[in-house]
Amino acid sequence: MKHRTKIAVLGFVLLLTAGVASAATASDTPRQRATASEAPRQRATASDAPRQREAAALTGTAKLYRSAGDDITFSFDAHLAAEDKADPSKATGTFEFSHYLNGKGARAEVKVDCLLTGGKVAVVSGVVTDSDLPGAQGKRVGVTVHDLGRHDRLGYSWASTGSPVDAKELPTCVSSAPFEKVAKGTGDFTVVPWQPEL
Question: Could you say which residues form the signal peptide (predicted)?
């Protein structure tokens, strides 16, 4: 008998709860109900809007492999906006590089002035804005990156001279072949390919 009473009470509580919920729903104005049903649709519409892909990019940080133990690091944050697709000289961003061995060396920060990418290869150039290498500030330098996943390669405009300071006046987006190898486990570079309308 007690068992049947508990079931009856539980059934009554459930019916009461359902009644309150339906009464609350019925008391909503048509506008409130419409707003509530539109909200998820509006959120979905905002999130479903396609984002325009940038025209090109070179990002990431990694160290180069040197058997002598040189600490050579390159870091990129270079971008070409979608609206500037036809003009690589409108690229923006920065890149940095440093080279140290036995506590001696130098670093440089560069303001990007050109970015060209094709497939997984990027060439970026810029003017050195800050450096502790005497004579480097104000010089244009260029770097080439081949994005090969875990085995990226890199080259730089001063490959044949040995120093960015010794390089003659360099045009924009000029560098050497990517002959250097990235040291395993030190980072990764990512290239977004340029797709000009030819």
Answer: 1-23
